[in-house]
Amino acid sequence: MKADKDDKSKGPATKTKRDKSTVAKPHALSPKSVSKPGPARAAGKKPARKSAAKPVRTRGRRRPSVATETVEAIFRRFAEIEPEPKGELEHKDAYTLLVAVVLSAQATDAGVNKATRHLFALADTPEKMVALGEDKVRDLIKTIGLFRNKAKNVVALSQKLIADYGGEVPDDRAALESLPGVGRKTANVVLNVWFGQPSMAVDTHVFRIAHRLGFSNGSTPEEVERDLMAIVPDEYGVPAHHWLILHGRYLCKARKPECWRCPIRDYCPMEDKTPPPRK
C-alpha cells in the first residue's frame, strides 16, 4: 500500500477497536482455499440484467450504473465466504499497525512482515522506536523498498506521536495525516482495521476491482474511494475494503484473473473470462 499525502479531510471518530492483533495466515480467498463459486455462465449467454441504478455524478463525471441489488449481492457473497476478513500485515496494536502500513508502500505484505518481526521485537512503541534511532531502523528494514525514507518517517512519526498525542495513535483522519509518511490511504487502513470505522483504502487491487465490476470509472484513488463509499451497503462498510483487496490479490489478478473459481463471476460485467489451466 502506498503511503501518499493528500488533502486533509476529517472522518468520523470512534473508539471501537476491531482487531487486537493480526498474524498473517491463509484465508478463504487464498489460492490454497476452496472458494464458493458462483454459477457458471452459459456459453454466449449474458446474465439477466438487474434493475437499473441511477448514475452518481462526481465532479462532473458519471459513475457507471450498477444496480443496488447487484452491489448488495456481491458483498453478501463475500460475507458468506469470509465473514470476518483481516489484512495480512502483522501487528498487535494501533502503533505497530501504523508502522507496518507506512512500511508497506511499494512492498509486499509478506516482505514487510518479515522485516517488522525483527523491528517490533526491539521497538514496538513510539518511545522505543525513537530510542532505537534512524540508523538501526534502517538496517532492520533494508530488505523493503524505499527503506531509507521509510526509516526516517517511522522515527519522525514516533516523535510526533510522543510530542503531540501522548504516544497514542489518534483515531482522527486529519491527525493521522499530519504524521510524517502518512497519507489518506494509510490513514484509511488504520481507521478501518484498528478503530472499526467505515473507510476505503484504495490500493492497486481495489482500484482494479472497482473498475472491472463497474463500481467506478474514476481516474484517481480519491475518485474511486468516493464512488465505493457511495455504493457499499452500510452493513459492509468496514469489511468491504478487505474483501476487495483480497479478491484482487488472489483471484481477480491484473494479468491472469482466475475467473474459473471466482465466487462473483455471475455478477461480473467483463466479457472475457480466463479459462481454467489445462491439466
Layout: helices, strands, pairs:
Layout lengths: L56 E2 L2 E2 L5 H14 L12 H10 L5 H14 L3 H7 L1 H7 L6 H19 L7 H5 L6 H10 L10 H9 L8 H11 L8 H11 L29
Antiparallel strand pairs: 1-2
Helix pairs in contact: 2-8, 4-6, 5-6, 9-11
Descriptive notes:
The chain is built from 11 helices and 2 strands. With 279 residues, the protein is mostly helical. The chain folds into 2 domains: 57-86 and 199-267, Endonuclease Iii, domain 2 (Orthogonal Bundle); 94-193, Hypothetical protein, domain 2 (Endonuclease III, domain 1), CATH 1.10.340.30. The protein is globular and about 55 Å long. The model is unreliable at 1-19 and 31-58 (pLDDT under 50).
Quick tags:
279 residues; Endonuclease III, domain 1; 42% helix; mainly alpha; 2 strands; Endonuclease Iii, domain 2
The CATH superfamily title of the largest domain = Hypothetical protein, domain 2
Helical residue percent band: 40-55%
Q: Total strand count, please?
A: 2
Distance between the termini: 35 Å
Structural class by sheet pairing and helices: mainly alpha
CATH architecture of the largest domain: Orthogonal Bundle
What low-confidence regions span 5 or more consecutive residues with pLDDT below 50?
A: 1-19, 31-58
The overall pLDDT, averaged over residues, is: 83
Number of distinct helices? 11
| CATH topology heading of the largest domain | Endonuclease III, domain 1
- The level 1 CATH classification of the largest domain is Mainly Alpha
What Rg, in angstroms, do the CA atoms define? 20 Å
Strand count, sense and closure of the main sheet? 2 strands, antiparallel
What count of structural domains? 2
| Run of helices and strands | EEHHHHHHHHHHH
Strand order, sheet with most strands: 1-2
Beta-strand content bin? under 5%
